[in-house]
Design brief:
- By secondary structure, the protein is α+β, with helices and mostly antiparallel strands.
- A three-stranded antiparallel sheet has the order 1-2-3, covered by helices on one side.
- Strand 1 and strand 2 form a beta hairpin.
- The longest helix has 37 residues.
- The protein is elongated.
């Protein structure tokens, strides 16, 4: 097959800004994929702990989280919960004598 003759002035234009944006997207996507794999491994470990302890739900008020195991789907849901607000204690003024 013959190689196509290049015509002067028809070279492909390189847009440095566009290339940098595409490269950034590619690196972010790779990082996202790696984090997704880590998230899956962490979820599987949490599911195993919940099943081992025969729990369907778990609440840790100190951390402010609620964990719910979705049976049949082998899926776990972790949600933030509102921490109970502590009422400020006002000092009691001593009676003047």
């Amino acid at each position: 097959m013959k190689k196509q003759t290049q015509i002067p002035g028809t070279e492909r234009v390189v847009d440095a800004e566009l290339s940098a944006a595409a490269e950034h997207l590619q690196s972010v996507r790779a990082e996202h994929m790696e984090l997704s794999e880590q998230e899956t491994a962490a979820a599987n470990a949490l599911i195993a702990h919940m099943i081992e302890r025969k729990l369907d739900s778990y609440v840790d008020e100190d951390l402010g989280i609620r964990v719910a195991l979705v049976r049949g789907e082998d899926r776990v849901s972790v949600r933030k919960i509102a921490k109970p607000k502590e009422e400020p204690v006002e000092p009691v003024a001593e009676a003047a004598e």
